[in-house]
Design a protein that fits this description.
By secondary structure, this protein is mostly helical. Helix content is 70%, strand content 9%. A 3-stranded mixed β-sheet has the order 1-2-3.
């Protein structure tokens, strides 16, 4: 039975890994096409706003490549030098992506300010319509790809894919903003709007980078699992309250797609080693059904006093009262 469970778990992990890799490849390919398209139209129109969006997509492309590499590395099995696996590579990718985005935002803001100061605002107004269409197409593509990325990220609990999805979702909003700006320029002829909208794009990019930095840094510092996840683990333990006396010292952490759980399980003094081992195996199996990529360590210790965790009393105390 345990062998069947182990094979099923392995197949689930492999299926999730392939889904993550194929989705990451989709992100890379879509970003390549968007960078080429935006750069070509941006320079043809002479629009800093469109070029800034091309730079944004270029950063997204680099982030997608980093995410793809980190996902492949994170799914490698533990080895001699990484006995707990390679999950941290996904967390590291998010942190590096945030630094790249900060750099792109600063560069766009600098260019926008310089053009405002020197009054460089020459646009090819004959091609504005094409620029507007490109921004609309970009928003649609990124909306579709980011939705796909977020869906797979939630299903496989991939931090790298979720970060990439948020990048592209930000691109949707900025592309729509640039499109609105170009429409206003076409209607009003106020060319300075190009620099102002480019600056606005940079501010949105900066905000996204800040949120990504906070999330990725939290994972790099071995932050515990969420309250909801820990509550689910405690519920699984409490479902077997009649089989043990108590549990305590529950600790959790996350490393990329991998979770780590350890706890102390208090059993009656008359419990045999075999019984305690079988109980620990059963609890591990139940936890793994909820969280497939989890490393679980259970320390068994004998009960010495009454306890009320999971609304159960120590079996020794119950025997003494009989």
């Amino acid at each position: 039975m345990l062998g069947l469970f182990s094979r099923t778990k392995k197949m689930q992990v492999q299926s999730a890994a392939e889904a993550k890799r194929s989705t990451a490849r989709l992100s890379v390919l879509s970003n390549i096409s968007l960078v080429v398209m935006k750069l070509a139209i941006g320079f043809a129109v002479g629009s800093l706003a469109i070029i800034s969006e091309a730079a944004h997509s270029g950063i997204d492309l680099l982030a997608a490549i980093i995410a793809y590499i980190s996902i492949k590395k994170a799914n490698e099995p533990p080895d001699k030098d990484h006995t707990f696996g390679h999950g941290k590579f996904e967390d590291m990718s998010g942190f590096f992506e945030a630094l790249l985005i900060f750099g792109a935002a600063v560069l766009i803001m600098y260019e926008a300010v310089m053009k405002l100061i020197h009054g460089e605002a020459a646009l090819n107004e004959d091609l504005l319509g094409i620029g507007i269409a490109v921004m609309g197409i970009s928003a649609l593509i990124n909306f579709f790809v980011s939705g796909r990325l977020m869906k797979v990220a939630k299903e496989t609990e991939s931090i790298a894919l979720e970060s990439d999805a948020w990048h592209l979702r930000t691109d949707v909003y900025t592309s729509l903003g640039i499109m609105a700006g170009l429409i206003l320029i076409k209607l009003t002829g106020i060319l300075i709007l190009d620099q102002l909208f480019a600056f606005g794009v940079a501010m949105m990019i900066m905000h996204a980078a800040y949120e990504l930095t906070v999330r990725s840094f939290g994972e790099l510092t071995d932050h515990r699992l969420s309250d909801e996840e820990e509550a689910r683990i405690k519920k699984i333990l409490c479902d077997h309250a009649t089989d043990f006396a108590n549990f305590h010292a529950l600790r959790t952490r996350r490393s990329g797609p991998d979770r780590f759980v350890d706890l102390h399980l208090v059993v009656a003094k008359d419990t045999t080693v075999e019984e305690a081992h079988d109980l620990a195996d059963h609890l591990e199996s139940d936890i793994l059904l909820e969280f497939p990529r989890t490393s679980i360590s259970i320390h068994v210790e004998p009960c010495s006093e009454a306890c009320e965790d999971c609304s159960s009393l120590c079996r020794i105390e119950r025997k003494q009262s009989e």
